[in-house]
Amino acid sequence: MKSTDEAIDTEVKTERVPCDLCGSDSSDDILLGRDMLHGLAGKWSVVRCRKCGLVYTNPRPTPETLASVYPPDYGPYQAQQHKRHRLRRRLQQWAMRQHWNYPPHDKSGWLGRLLSWPILILTKGQRRNFDLFPWQGQGKLLDYGCGSGGYLDRMKQWGWNVVGMDMSDQAVATCREQGFDVCRGIAPDQEFAPDSFDVVTLWHVLEHVPSPTRTLCQVNTVLKPHGKLVVALPNIDSLLARWMGIYWYPLELPRHLTHFSKTTITKMMEKAGFRVEKIYAQRYGQVTQKSFRYLTREKKKGIIAILSGRRRLCSIIERILSLNGEPPRMVIHARKI
Ligand SMILES: [Zn+2]
Fold first, then answer.
1. Least packed by Cβ within 10 Å: which of 17, 56, 72, 328?
2. Ligand 1 centroid vs 186 CA: distance in angstroms?
3. Are strands 161-166 and 182-184 parallel, antiparallel or unpaired?
4. CA of 82 to the centre of ligand 1 (A)
């Protein structure tokens, strides 16, 4: 493999770092990729720690220059038009009150609970809509890495008392324009008092932060005792990731600094004071289709080019490739110990 120090051709300053999970600086190169999404200059090496197996980008942008690898048109920072389906929302709201104790807390007994389950599934309120879960405590929720506020908006609709946090001035400004309580920063324990939140969510954020172990410890501090942590991440151990290599869409170099597996995120959460309760697949389809598009863009691949235009087929392929229990994107529910 070509030396990554020579390969870097960019103004972004880089640094070599030890493993964030175990501290070891002994690792093996596993691939050399580049920015397939925004086409920023430079090649980036992804390594696997010999001691604990954590996969991470190394060398990587320094914390001081990290912001420069996020262009102004970076997707999660753009203001979105939030869809509102009134009937679906009313049905979901009723079902969530029956089944997940959402406010106002007036359950209608066993019949309500029985009917609510198919409604949650039919209206995609369960799992496929990845962002819904049982009511927790007093309903105070921090969305860490809130981007333009799409998730804050949705959870506010469901009755949660929402607060956002993001390192991007652009994202924070967009959220504030919509009236959300959002602070700019990366260290939640410096912004909020200990034991402040019932739930903290990190939707595809942990792979972006310089030290995910430190971030998880900070999140642990601001969560109430037995508070809930919900994290979504790409899975570097998925068959799709192994098959696609540098064309794997969620590799997203150099913005993704850590590339988690079920094993490494579980170890890291335990180290930060959490107990993992469940890990399940996030919605299917998008990752396969976008990975196929990357591959097609670079190489003429007949069948892959045809498949990359068929979202449903890509979704089926993604499900088949996930039958080994390793989906390309995963959601982890954990509890503060
Ligand atoms: Zn390690």
1. 72
2. 23
3. parallel
4. 40
pLDDT at 123 over 70: no
Rounded Cα distance, 270 and 335, in Å? 10
Centroid of ligand 1 to alpha carbon of 288 (angstroms): 29
* Cα 21 to middle of ligand 1, angstroms: 5
Q: Calculate the average pLDDT of the chain.
A: 87
Q: Predicted confidence band at 2 (pLDDT cuts at 50, 70, 90)?
A: very low
pLDDT of residue 54: 98
CA gap 38, 31 in Å, rounded: 19
Q: Which residues contact 204 (CB under 8 A, 6 or more apart)?
A: 76, 145, 232, 233, 234
Instruction: Give the DSSP H/E element, type plus range, for residue 325.
Output: none
**Distance in Å, CA 337 to ligand 1 centroid:** 23
Quote the ligand 1 centre to 18 CA distance (angstroms): 8
Ligand 1 center to 19 CA (angstroms): 5
User: What pLDDT score does 184 carry?
Assistant: 93
R_g of the chain, CA atoms, integer Å: 20
Element (H, E) at 69: none
pLDDT at 31: 95
Contact (CB, 8 A) for 97 and 119: no
| Residue 59 CB neighbour total at 10 angstroms | 17
Rounded CA separation 213/272 (Å): 7
